Each structure stands twice: as structure tokens, then as C-alpha cells.
Amino acid sequence: MKAGRQPTEMHIDSRERDDVLLRRSANGDEEAFTLLYRRHQAPIYRFALRMTGNTWAAEEIVQDVFMTLVREPKKYDAERGALGAFLYGVARNRIMKHQERLPREVPLLNPEDDGFAGYAQAIDSATPAHWAELRERRDHVRAAVLELPADFREAVALCLLEEMSYEEAAESLQCPVGTIRSRLHRGRALLLAKLEMLRDMPKRANGTR
Amino acid sequence: MTCEEFQMADLDSGLTAEEGPLQQTARQHLLECPHCAALHENWQALRTDLHALGAETREAEAPSRVELRLRQEFRTKHKTLKRRRVALVAAWAFAGAAVVVCAITWFNWRLQHGQMANMQQTRGGQSTVTATNSTGGAQQVSPAGPELGEVLMASNDASEFTLLPGTMPGSLDGATVVHVQMQRGALGALGLTVNEEQAADWIQLDLLVGDDGQPQAVRLPATSD
Fold first, then answer.
1. Which residues of B touch A50 (CB under 8 A)?
2. Is the pTM higher than 0.80?
3. Are B180 and B204 a contacting pair, CB within 8 Å?
4. ipTM of the complex as predicted
């Protein structure tokens, strides 16, 4: 999804450090805040989208995360890590709250709603049958990812979907690299198990008839 | 390499990274172990799906309305803060100005008060020798003590005394003030007119007694009238 963002003329050097921008933003510099937002919103949005499977929820989470920067900029301490990691931390809390609020919410598998609409364009050269098969398979994978426990899902979302390195994911989730590796290993095993079950289900059903 | 070792090895990079001893061992294990080969095959298929799934949302970003809302919120928050800051500065400035005005007023009042006291003291000093003497005399004579003495000093102005009939204005040199309590009717004996209805009232007054022991002037306190 590509948002139709209105480009605004910026007078701040785009290489300005996050903590400097945040300080300026806290002093009421809207341009600095906008630059910060544009720098960090996309990965946070994708993370929220992949964790919730819902564009509305992801939008709300991004808004909450950056609202924290507007309202309580002093919550971020530059000595404790990068701003990106702080934002991921806030996003994780919001995602957790979102999922506590809607524990049984099942995202609608509608490409228009779930943020995965680009897939349809990617395979338009295939036959309708192939398209349907691929889409069904992709839906199963997506559902399996969304059913993973949150810790494993975070690792999968960052390392396998966002394609971050283990080190980057560890920094974002503020945990050791070994933890990421372990969560990823277990998440992968769970995914395989879930998809294996899904694949087997029709066979078993056919077998009992 | 055992199956456990194979599974614990990084399946992503284990067979795709540059060929090394680990990759060679893993590849060898794949040829020997059908279970791990199936697992690896499944993982490769899943990895492709995950990659495609990730690619679908790789360019995703929050809609522009989120940015607009946040910027609106930012403006509102900082405008309110700015207003509060201005109000705070104005309040402090007002309070400071009030303090300065109070201080100046107090200072002026003190200055005027001091000047008046000085003027009174100067007038008192310049009045006559009688005044100086009379103060001492009053303090000696008065049973009321230093308070009364202070009052006498403060109001030690010969012009407040009313000369008794028959007294010459120039004959007050060396006179002494005597604070006395007497019946109003006794003033008649000094040649003053007395209201008969109040003749029996006790009043306190100051008498200016000359060198000869004769009262020369009288000063009635305002309350005794």
C-alpha cells in the first residue's frame, strides 16, 4: 500500500540524529517531528500490520506510538538505545493491549482490508486456478503467522517478513541475539507444524469418507 | 552431523551461505537423512511463501491521514503549551510589577514619614529652650513614665499651649511642663471659662509653669474637651 503523501518542504538536514530531532520536536518544532515520523512510521506500521493482520489496528497503533512522542517525549532516553528500538517497544505494548482487547478477533481475509492487496497484482499473469491456489496457500501462511505466540511472531515478523538481521531484530526487541535465534527456531517449527496440519486436513477428511 | 544438530543449525543461512565446513556437513546430512531432507524442503517452501508475504507489505506505510492527525495534535499541544507559557510569564511579570510598585510606595512612605519626623524634631529643637526643658520637667513630674514623656516630646510645641490670661508671650523662657490631673472647675481659678455642667469632671492637662512657679499656659488634651 502506498499512501498519497503530500511532500512538504523540509529545512532540516535529513541526516540529523533522532535524539536531536526529538529534542527540537519537544520544543515545538513541527518540522522536526514530521521528519522523525516519516523516518520511522513505515517499519512500525509494517510491524503492527504483520502482528495484528489488520490495517485499521496497525494505523491506530502507529498513531498511538507517535502520540507518545508528542505527549511524553521525555520517556525516550537516548542513552538506553536507539529511538527506533524505543518505538518498537511502545508498539509492542500497544499491540499487546490491542490483542488483549480483542482476544478472539480473527482478521478478515479480505485483500482490501488486510493490507496484503499487492499480492493480487503480483500474480496477475497466472491462471485463475493458480491464482486461487496461491492465494489460499498465502492465506494459510498468514493465518499461521498470526496464530503464533506473540514472542515468536515478533521474531518471524522482523527476521522473515521484514528481513532484518538477527542483530537488528535483537536491538529492536531489546533482547539478546540468542533469544531471537531461539524464538525464530521455535516459531519456524510451529509454523511448519501448523501448515503441515492444514495440508493434512483435507487428506484426512478424504481418507475417512 | 545429527538431526538435532542439523535442526539447530541456521536453516536460512546453513545451505545458502558461502560453502564452508558446516554447509558441507549439512549437505551431506541431507543426502543421508530423508526426515531432515523433508523438513528442509518444507522449510524452503514456507520460506518462499513468507518471503512473498513479506514482499506484499514491504512498501506498506501508514496512510497520510495518520500524519495529518499527528501534526494536528502536535500543533494543538504546543499551541496550548505556548499559551500557558505566555500566561505564566505574564502572571510572573504582573506579580513582579506589583511587588516593585509596593516596594516603591513603601519606600516613599518611609521617606516622607522620616522627613516629617525630622521636620518635627527640627521644629521641636528650634522652638525654644523651654521645650527642651519642659520635656525633662515633664518626665520628672509625670507619674505616667516614659510613654507620656514621649507623647510630650512629640507634641512639645509651645504654640499648642494656651496662654493664661495675664501672661506675657515672651515670658515663657525656662518654663516647665507639668502633667496634672484636676477637676475642670479648677481651670476657672486660672482665669479660663468653664462650662458649669462639666465642672466636676476630672481631666488631665499640661501646665506650663514659669520660673516663678506660676502657671503660664495650659494645654488640654483633645480627649478631655
1. 57
2. no
3. yes
4. 0.72
